């Protein structure tokens, strides 16, 4: 049985067709979904394309161009609100990180000053004990 490199059907992950028992090859990934489309180069699987076409046809039958534009603008507005919330949250996190950096730098300076004072005190004690 031969398996074409590109198939118009989705092959389940558990299908024996995906394995190559006679060769040391990984399972076929040509029909595996990928963020930018199928790895075979097609933008969608045939099933996803059919679903998209059916949804588009339904929208085109039930809505006017003005309604579609209004729905589009509403969706864009929602997405921009989410983006703005994320931007504000990122700025807040950056402020907190910068505050923690400054706090850590201050703690480092105090630590080194205390260490220097401790060493200086130790040297002075040794100098007094050795000179006495």
Walkthrough of the structure:
With 132 residues, the protein is an all-alpha fold. The protein folds into 2 domains: 1-62, no CATH class; 65-132. Helices cover 64% and strands 0% of the residues. The chain is built from 2 helices and no strands. The mean pLDDT is 80.
Give a summary of the structure in a few sentences.
Residues 1-49 are annotated as: Disordered. The chain has two helices and no strands.
Keywords for this entry:
single chain, 132 residues, mainly alpha, 2 domains, coiled coil
Please outline the helices and strands.
Layout: H1 46-62, H2 65-131
Structural class: mainly alpha
Q: What number of domains?
A: 2
Instruction: Give the distance, in angstroms, between the N- and C-terminal Cα atoms.
Output: 98 Å
* Alpha plus pi helix count: 2
Strand and helix order: HH
Strand content: under 5%
Uncertain spans, ≥5 residues at pLDDT below 50? Answer: none
Shape: elongated
What does the average pLDDT come to?
80
Query: Which bin fits the share of residues in helices?
Result: 55-70%
Structure summary, number of beta strands: 0
Query: How many whole angstroms does the radius of gyration measure?
Result: 33 Å
Largest sheet: none
